[in-house]
């Protein structure tokens, strides 16, 4: 007979029993037997670093699994109130809020004790499938033990569960959410005393007996990290103990053993009949490395292990604390005996995760960050949990954000963080393969927010705590959450899908630059040196020291400017047929008087536009570009009050005539003012700018159009503004107001009725403002209709709401708040491709079939990123939205210009980069060229689009036809070739340039 030591016999029996249970529960749990590799979650940072950027960050339109759990939650002390009613005993929070410098209590909270029906009605309105709430231990057992049983308190929870079942909502019940009976704290020392393990087990036993037939999800303890570290360490929360730095680890040890005891109790005695599942709610922050070194990643891993792994590793893996905790804490960290390890390990049926504005995210101090950076990223944390703990089913049992206590029913910040977390959970399922089984929005109603008291609000329903009835009013976040639940996520709609098709033949493809490089000193024939050529039959030039040639006796030619050739060559390689750039008014007419222009600069612009045409590129020229950094007006005009002076408008018209006369032979598309509708421009300045534009347009129309046949307009900055709450009519009006003030301000007088938008005038009249000038009749006639096309610069989109939250930019004049959707890609401005389509449709809706050009569209990205994936993504998707506007919406779109040509002139926006003197072709340039070559996004398999081809320029023709070939004579000597080598060199160079 085999004899086994009693201790080993117990271990063998426990192991055999566990094997039988695992087999009975089926394959998913059998996998738990495979031990996780140490620090398996360490691969998380590398995994996400390798995902395609920014495509992986794009919003995912998809739905959750059909059986996905949608939940909402509360905690007893935060919402119940009735702290002494019907026999309830005091909890440690009842005592804690009456000590020290505490200002408020949860005595009444949200008064859910007297408002079950109101809470249930709110739950029903949301459409959730589950409701997570906690039991007040002291309401059931006033002194914490069964001998003090309180029937009335127990009936409160029976009634709540019954009401939930009536509306077909499953309860998710938390046994302990931080409100320990005060008697246990006072007599035993609370969770610091190991005796509490048995007491908690007995309390749980009663709850399983009483409520278990109706409860399929149990949470033993909520966020033990906060209980241990902040309740018994920092003293931030109840019971507020902070004298012993080692006490939190003792408390955490007891919390783990208490949870394990309850799990085994349920597993043995209640699971066979009640068929429920049980876990512990663990909360965590997410953390990113400050450097890419392995040491930083290990510090991130250790940070997560000190917060989440402290409790997760013993429960989900091997009954031991994480190695980095043991290494750093040494004997301060308690140890489990072999029997305790076996008792603790794998005592969770699913991973219950809390994430968001939990105390563990705000770590109070930096001690557990280990020099790394906290970050909000639920998706990465879900992946880490899955990797670290053998891919368990994960139920997000608490998630959300908060707003300041002054916020009422409009809570855009809360709503968009909720959207972000739900979207990250969806990506975790669909893309990463993580087994996320449910999501719980936190919380149902506003309540007492622990150490922050009533200073913040986290509810989906608003409560005015100063009213006796505590009426529950749905916030916009509640409406949003209900919509998400109804659709089971974010189903893809037709407008979300990329369009296939091409733009019309003759569509304008361009690139824009704020300015061009100007080098008015000819580089050709500027070198007086003498060279030897081909002396070794290698075709190279060798400089002859001590010799110089006389200066050339001829006038300057356009081909003498290397900068022109280089810039045009760069533009041509993109494949565009148009190039848009701005002239420098202050440099062209320094005195403001066109009788004294800078003829050298004017000739340079003449040569540049001519060279563009020779390269089959149509120049598009802006006469004046608004810059915030400087006036960009000629100094005398700037000194004479700039645009506020009515003479400046006439001076601008004369400047425009000069440009039309000198450059109009080559330029057929003019922009008078580029982006004058800047918020830094006053209404009085804008009034004069409108007249300046009109005078310039009418000068061209009368004096130059008959002979030159060009077109003239102005270009307006038009980023899109979307109502923050798309389902709320209250935000539609603020969005219209912002667009009136930003775009309609300049557009309506020119393209519309010859006056400022009616809504703009009404709003300012309502504010008793006289700032907006009034058009005289002759001014209205002058301005109205002065356009040939509608040109916009578009880069990004903002959200607007009438709600006021201190955390966002509030514009008092318009009484609107501007914000962003936290799910948007940032560049650093939001990347929102559909905003361009909406902007183009706004133009169509307001001004019918007017021809439209997108004159500038681009993304800001680190100039060092030559593989500029963000800009590649940006251009592809924005152009695709422009195609939708043309093909699906009927916008009369004539052209698209990418912004910008290079980083040298427009830092961080260029299709070309530069390192020292070397020009770098970025990935975005190649991708943009590919789109141009296909004239859009052709349908796969469709016949190629047939368009007449443009005549190609002949580079060698002009020099060969217009100029004689330069002959040369060489005299060979033994040491020096005294020649006309200079002629050889420059003739060869001129021939190569083919002017």
Question: How does this model look, in words?
Answer:
With 995 residues, the chain is an alpha/beta fold. Among the domains are: 45-486, TIM Barrel, CATH 3.20.20.80; 955-981, no CATH class. The strands form eleven sheets. The chain has an eight-stranded parallel β-barrel with strand order 2-3-4-5-6-8-10-12, surrounded by six helices. α10 (196-211) runs parallel beside α12 and α17 (378-388) runs parallel beside α18 (412-430). The N and C termini lie far apart (106 Å). Mean pLDDT is 90; it is low at 1-34 and 953-995. Residues 1-25 form the signal peptide. One of its GO terms (molecular function) is hydrolase activity, hydrolyzing O-glycosyl compounds.
Regions with little confidence, pLDDT below 50 for 5+ residues: 1-34, 953-995
- The assigned structural class equals alpha/beta
* Rounded average pLDDT: 90
The proportion of residues forming helix, as a percent range, comes to 25-40%
The oligomeric state is single chain
CATH level-four homologous superfamily name of the domain at 45-486: Glycosidases
Question: What is the global morphology?
Answer: elongated
| C-alpha Rg (nearest Å) | 37 Å
Q: State the name of the first-level CATH class of the domain at 45-486.
A: Alpha Beta
Number of strands: 36
Approximately what portion of the residues adopt beta-strand conformation? 15-25%
Put simply, the count of helices is 34
Q: Looking across the biggest beta sheet, what order are the strands in? A: 2-3-4-5-6-8-10-12
CATH topology of the domain at 45-486: TIM Barrel
């Amino acid at each position: 007979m085999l004899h086994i030591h009693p201790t080993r016999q117990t271990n063998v029996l426990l192991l055999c029993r566990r094997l039988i249970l695992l087999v009975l529960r089926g394959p998913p749990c059998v996998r738990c037997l495979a031990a996780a590799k140490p620090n398996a979650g360490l691969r998380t940072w590398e995994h996400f670093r390798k995902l395609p950027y920014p495509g992986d960050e794009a919003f995912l339109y998809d739905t959750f699994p059909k059986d996905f759990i949608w939940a909402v939650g509360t905690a007893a002390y935060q919402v119940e109130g009735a702290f002494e009613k019907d026999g309830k005993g005091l909890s440690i929070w009842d005592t804690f809020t009456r000590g020290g410098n505490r200002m408020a209590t949860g005595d009444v909270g949200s008064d859910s004790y007297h408002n079950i029906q109101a809470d249930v009605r709110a739950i029903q309105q949301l459409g959730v499938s589950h409701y997570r709430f906690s039991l007040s231990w002291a309401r059931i057992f006033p002194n914490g033990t069964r001998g003090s049983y309180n029937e009335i308190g127990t009936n409160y929870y029976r009634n709540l569960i019954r009401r939930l079942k009536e509306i077909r909502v499953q309860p998710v019940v938390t046994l302990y959410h931080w409100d320990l009976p005060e008697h246990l704290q006072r007599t035993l020392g609370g969770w610091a005393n190991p005796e509490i393990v048995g007491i908690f087990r007995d309390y749980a036993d009663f709850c399983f007996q009483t409520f278990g037939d109706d409860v399929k999800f149990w949470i033993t303890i909520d966020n033990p990290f906060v209980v241990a570290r902040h309740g018994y360490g920092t003293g931030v929360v109840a019971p507020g103990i902070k004298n012993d730095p080692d006490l939190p680890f003792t408390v955490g040890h007891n919390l783990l053993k208490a949870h394990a005891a309850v799990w085994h109790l349920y597993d043995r005695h209640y699971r066979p009949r009640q068929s429920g599942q049980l876990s512990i709610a663990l909360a965590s922050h997410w953390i990113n490395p400050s450097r890419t070194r392995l040491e930083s990643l290990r510090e991130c891993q250790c940070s997560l292990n000190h917060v989440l792994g402290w409790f997760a590793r013993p429960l989900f893996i091997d009954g031991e604390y994480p190695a980095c905790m043991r290494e750093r804490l040494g004997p301060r960290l308690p140890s489990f005996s072999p029997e305790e390890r076996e008792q603790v390990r794998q005592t969770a049926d699913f991973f219950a995760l809390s994430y968001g504005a939990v105390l563990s995210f705000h770590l109070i101090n930096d001690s557990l960050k280990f020099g790394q950076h906290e970050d909000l990223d639920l998706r990465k944390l879900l992946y880490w949990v899955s990797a670290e703990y053998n891919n368990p089913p994960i139920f997000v049992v608490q998630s959300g954000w908060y707003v300041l206590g002054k916020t009422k029913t409009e809570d855009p910040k809360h709503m968009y963080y909720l959207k972000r977390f739900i979207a990250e959970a969806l990506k975790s399922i669909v893309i990463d393969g993580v087994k996320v089984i449910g999501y719980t929005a936190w919380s149902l109603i506003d309540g007492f927010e622990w150490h922050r008291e009533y200073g913040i609000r986290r509810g989906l329903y608003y409560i005015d705590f100063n009213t006796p009835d505590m009426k529950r009013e749905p916030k916009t976040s509640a409406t949003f959450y209900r919509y998400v639940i109804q659709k089971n996520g974010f189903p893809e709609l037709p407008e979300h899908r990329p369009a296939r098709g091409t733009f019309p033949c003759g569509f304008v493809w361009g690139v824009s630059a704020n300015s061009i490089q100007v080098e008015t000193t000819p580089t050709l024939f500027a070198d007086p040196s003498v060279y030897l050529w081909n002396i070794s039959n290698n075709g190279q030039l060798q400089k002859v020291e001590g010799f110089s040639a006389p200066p050339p006796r001829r006038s300057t030619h356009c081909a003498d400017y290397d900068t022109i050739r280089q810039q045009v060559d760069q533009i041509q390689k993109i494949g565009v047929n148009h190039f848009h750039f701005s002239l420098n008014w202050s440099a062209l007419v320094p005195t403001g008087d066109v009788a004294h222009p800078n003829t050298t600069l004017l000739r340079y612009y003449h040569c540049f536009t001519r060279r563009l045409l020779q390269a089959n590129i149509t120049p598009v020229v802006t006469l004046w570009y608004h810059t915030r950094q400087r006036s960009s007006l000629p100094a005398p005009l700037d000194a004479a009050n700039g645009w506020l002076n009515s003479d400046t408008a006439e001076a601008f018209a004369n400047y425009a005539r000069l440009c039309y006369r000198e450059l109009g032979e080559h330029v057929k598309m003019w922009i008078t003012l580029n982006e004058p509708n800047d918020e830094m421009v006053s209404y009085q300045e804008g009034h004069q700018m409108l007249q300046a534009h009109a005078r310039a347009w009418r000068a061209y129309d009368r004096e130059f159009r008959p002979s030159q046949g060009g077109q003239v307009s102005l270009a307006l900055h038009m980023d899109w503004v979307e109502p923050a709450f798309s389902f709320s009519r209250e935000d539609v009006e603020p969005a219209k107001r912002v667009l009136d003030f930003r775009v309609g301000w300049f557009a309506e007088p020119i393209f519309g009725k010859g006056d400022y938008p009616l809504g703009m005038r009404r709003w300012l009249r309502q504010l008793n403002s006289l700032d907006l000038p009034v058009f005289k009749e002759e001014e209205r006639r002058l301005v109205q209709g002065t356009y040939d096309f509608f040109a916009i610069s578009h880069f990004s989109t903002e959200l607007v709401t009438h709600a006021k939250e201190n955390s966002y930019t509030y514009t008092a004049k318009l009484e609107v708040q501007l914000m962003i959707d936290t799910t948007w890609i940032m560049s650093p401005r939001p990347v929102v491709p559909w905003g361009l389509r909406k902007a183009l449709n706004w133009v169509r809706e307001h001004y019918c079939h007017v021809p439209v050009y997108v004159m500038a569209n681009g993304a800001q990205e680190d100039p060092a990123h030559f593989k500029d994936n963000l800009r590649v993504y940006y251009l592809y998707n924005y152009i695709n939205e422009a195609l939708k506007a043309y093909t699906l919406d009927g916008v009369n779109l004539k052209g698209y210009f990418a912004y910008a040509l290079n980083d040298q002139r427009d830092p961080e926006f260029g299709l070309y980069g530069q390192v020292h003197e070397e020009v770098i072709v970025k990935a975005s340039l190649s991708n943009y060229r590919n789109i141009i070559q296909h004239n859009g996004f052709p349908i796969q398999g469709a016949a190629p689009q047939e368009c007449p081809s443009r005549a190609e320029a002949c580079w060698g023709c002009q020099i060969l036809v217009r100029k004689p070939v330069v002959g040369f004579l060489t005299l060979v000597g033994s040491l020096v070739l005294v020649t006309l080598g200079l002629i050889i060199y420059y003739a060869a160079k001129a021939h190569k340039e083919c002017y």
